[in-house]
Amino acid sequence: LLFPVSNLCGKCRPRDTDILQPSLNFLYWSLHQTTPCSQQRAVAVLLSNVSLLELLQKVLECTWLWSPPSRPAYLSSEDALLCSGWLLVASLVLYQHRYNTEVHQTLSVDLTEVLNAVIFRNKKPILLLVSIMQFLRAVLRQNFSSLLVIVGQNTAPSAAQPQPSSLQDAALHPLAMQQVFLLVVSLQNLLVHKDLLLSQAVVACLETLVEYLYVKNQDVALHVASQPWHRFLLFTLLSGGQKSFLQPEVLRLMTLFVRYQSSNIISQKEISQIIQEAAEANIAELPEATCCALHLFLSQV
């Protein structure tokens, strides 16, 4: 089915949402819900379809064209298509690298637009924001060197694009220090919304960003991980009805701070509290996400 469905997508226009949205979803789940052997073949089939890749390029570009000021609060059919497009491309980036699959057509993405979508949000639906963050994570994990997607800064003359004005900017290229700090602050602000899906995506994006920074410039990564605002963020996440440390996003944040030795953010007292709560909890009744996050935290400690 991959052949006819991918060929059908290649014959469509981005406005054909009724056909494209379920078709892209089918391609996405075909990649994720199959055996490793079949997965490698599926990636090869999709990456060899030039028409499909050209269609995906147009869909991604529509993200910046379909952003009216009065965007509806619900997920429109156009936004749903954009979500499917970003998720599929993010998966193709990861699997192309994993299997070293031949690429017949490259995609081009403007990094400034991607970062601005997360930093400023502009009333984008949560699911679309999560999908764009999944893509950002994928290219960060590849150090912006994917064979499938060329990620560049906005080249328009009017674009307010940061220039590498310091050695730090040069080391983090194509990111700049200003973009990094704006992105971190925006991710922190999104966490305060306490939406489960959004929280999972934000923490994962923050983890990948700090890992990328650590490879590029350890001093910058440690500086970002030890920002005092992180501690206030933890207190905010622990406020309200559920004050337990055993929340997946809280545990993963704590793990991040332990990994990068941010002693001003997480102290021995908080570590002891988490271990005490874990000892008193009925592990069998904890959600799977919490158990996985707790395992990672304890392993890191």
Automatic annotation (TrEMBL):
InterPro entries: Immune_Signaling-Apoptosis_Reg. GO terms for biological process: meiosis I. This is MEI1 protein. It comes from Phainopepla nitens.
